[in-house]
Each structure stands twice: as structure tokens, then as C-alpha cells.
Amino acid sequence: MVIRGGGRTATGVSPAAIHNVGNQRRKLRAQGHAAWACKPSVRSPGRVKAYTGSTLDQEGRGAGVATVMVVDDNPTMAEMLSMALNIFGHNALTALSGEEALARIPFEAPDVVFLDLTMPGLDGYETLRRLRALPAGGDVPVFVITAAAEADLEERVQLAGASGLLRKPIHMETLADVVESSRRVLSRERQRPAA
């Protein structure tokens, strides 16, 4: 995500704000925001090419575009992550619960899923377990996102079937890197001849 503040460009800066009204710099600074992102988000062709190796077409889609689902019960976090993924040229979808994600995954067929661990209703563990049981969810890379700090958390989420763990706050370039590396690995696995 390109976040602008004080004439500088930053990523993953906190505190930050997302605003849908332009020209609010003084107000945001007065409120103590170090940076902000303006809505609607605009994909930067230079950044998209740098991270995906492809350029955008006239409709803002990249040849290497991935469909990425963000599952988080916090609408602000889901929106921020989705905006970042959109800026990097990906098609970002949001689901605000595990139940919603499980209902949409068979139809949306995401290439990568970012899944919050602590949600009401189905938590990340149960959502992941059910996702892995779906025909459309068996090989989808799923990265758990959490602010939890337990030492053994990475091992626990991998045992549950996650591809990895990202701790909040998440740097926006990390999202792009995770999506691209996951797509490369999945592409190689799908191209292997059956044994």
C-alpha cells in the first residue's frame, strides 16, 4: 500500500488512516496520523510491475494478477489489506467471517487466502480445518494473520494446515511477496506430472 504523509512514502506505518475524501492532510495530521491512504485506491503501474513482473491493462488488471481473499472480522483491517493487494495489482476479496469465506471460496477460487486467527463464530483454526476439507480449498495457500504473540503459534498454525503466519502489523510489501511466492510454488506443483 502506498501511504503518503509529510511528503514521504511509507508502508506499514501506524497510526494510519484510510479516508475517502481528498485534501484532508491538515485534519489527519492534527489527529495524530503519521500517514494515510486515500480511497478509492489507485493501482500504481510502476509498483505493480516491480512486484508482479507484469504491467496493467487498460482496465487495471495485470497479466500476473492473483485472486486473494482476506478473511478478517475487523472491517478496517480487511479493507486495508485489500487496498494494499489491489494496489499491487491483485484482485482482493474480503470476507468478514469464517462462515462467509467458506461459502464464497468454492465460487471465488482464490489463489491465496489471508486468514485472521481470532474471529467470533468460526475462529481461524476451525475455518482452516473446514477450508482444507473443501475440494476447492485443499491446495490453496493460507496464511494466518494475527496480533497474538505466543511463542509456539507458528508451529500450531502450520500443524493446522496453514502455509505460514504473518504477525500484525503487516508490512504491505510482505503481502505482495507472499502472494507472488505462493503463486510460483503452486504453479510448479500443478505442473508436475502425476506419479
Notes on the protein architecture:
The protein is built from 7 helices and 9 strands. The chain is 38% helix and 19% strand. It has 2 domains: 1-40, no CATH class; 42-191, Response regulator (Rossmann fold). Strands 6-5-7-8-9 form a 5-stranded parallel β-sheet, sandwiched between helices. Strands 1-2 form a two-stranded antiparallel sheet. Strands 3-4 form a two-stranded parallel sheet. By secondary structure, it is of the alpha/beta class. Helix 5 (124-133) links the parallel strand 7 and strand 8. The longest helix is centred in the C-terminal third of the chain and has 20 residues, at 172-191.
